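Run log, item B.
One chain of 279 residues. Sequence copied directly from the ordering sheet:
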Amino acid sequence: MADEGVTAERAEAEVEQQSQRLRRSRGYGALVRAGLVCWAAVHLLIAYLALRVAWGGGGDASQQGALKTLAKTGAGPVLLGVVAVGMFALTVWQGFEAALGQGRVAEQHDERRRTLKRLSSAGRALVYLALGVSALRLVLGGGGSSDQQEEGLTGRLMGVPLGRALVVLVAAVILAVAVAQVVRGVRQKFTEDLSGDRTRAVRVLGTIGYVAKGVALAVVGALFGWAALSYDPKKAGGLDEALHTVGSQPAGAVLLTALALGFAAFGVFCLVWARNPRT
């Protein structure tokens, strides 16, 4: 039994060494950087669309809307293809982190923290994968609005037994992620993802960006919760509906402009992150 334990430990150590070698490889680093640049572009486009909504220009200020804006440009299919590749690159990155764990020495003896980070990476991988698939669908001529998709999902959930409870659960998960984003920004935990460039300006960009994303997600979660309480799937919505909801409030244009600047700050932060990602 002791020999089996030693063999298992050696196998685990070998896997960890191989994963670290892969993380330090140029190809892996290039994959991550390309994905982060595309992620930055998506958020900068969302910021632009949110500003249009704030000042009467209309438009779909969501991740889907950002992709559709790219689709309408002269090089739309090419740009969408690049974004799709970038999102799939991020999917591979976060999928790898979820599968093998984020093996930093300081965390080797903190299994709870490692598990939470692996779950977080798995969630990010799913988001990136969904955006990559959406970009490909737009290249091929498919895809509806993000809010229609959210309403359809909510309607399907409400149609099953305990459906309203499931929608409330979805709302709770979104709100939990929103709080996590705000906490990550305020506590500046995002600096753990950087191998350099932790200047004051970078920390300010990251803080503003993560807080803005958290606030927007909180509104999305609230919309899901309201849809469950009112038993009306149409009241659910994605990021676009959330931003329109903010814009419809008193001083909504100012509030929405602040959120747009927050998304822009996150986009710029992603460009800095792409220069020095900690892989």
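Observations after the first pass:
- Residues 2-275 form one domain.
- The CA atoms of residues 137 and 154 lie 22 Å apart.
Flagged for discussion on Thursday.
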